Amino acid sequence: MTTFEMNPKKFIEMYIYNEKQYTSKNMVYGSRMATGLELDESTGDVLLDLVMARLPKFALMDKIIEHDEGVEIYDPHSEKKYCVPYINTGNEKIPLLAKPDTAKVNYSAFKEYKTSTVKWTQSKADESGQITFYTLAIWLKTGKLPQDIELVNATTEYTEDGKLQPTGEIYRFKTQRTLADVLQMQSRVKKTWSGIKKLVEEELI
Hints:
Elements: H1 2-6, H2 8-15, H3 25-39, H4 46-54, E1 60-61, E2 71-75, E3 80-84, E4 86-88, E5 93-95, E6 102-103, E7 109-116, H5 122-126, H6 129-142, E8 148-158, E9 164-175, H7 179-204
Parallel strand pairs: 7-8
Antiparallel strand pairs: 1-6, 2-3, 4-5, 6-7, 8-9
Helix pairs in contact: 6-7
């Protein structure tokens, strides 16, 4: 959604033609951590594994939010089908693929992990659209807003030889989302969905 809003051309390249995009070292490092946490496996990087062991966790790790009465989608990453929450516009159902890093089974709480060379701030956590999007999906599934939301930032640094490694510092930012935030995100999703449909039709026709 953010990619489309910032650069529709890049969205087409990534999600229609599956063209390889530039990936920073920090993004690669974050992906290694996410995969290790999801599979509960060692990454082979001693420092990273130590940081992962210290991260606060809930029962669910990197699981797609599902809804018994949701819309069925196919996730190409896991190569599985899921029933996910959706926004009903009256004319169609917009499926939401949301995958918090860790969450309670009842989704009353969730946490999102971020690796970065620059420490996150409280205001940045409060403004995170990703967290608001996850909250929207949870609200559509449960009818309730999660009361315990946290962004957990594990900072990284470059060594003299250019290698990226964790500093060992972990910062935790409690944040909240209101019903107004969720409804605003819902409107944003509808607008983006409409724009994506139009763009794809223009590109493929």
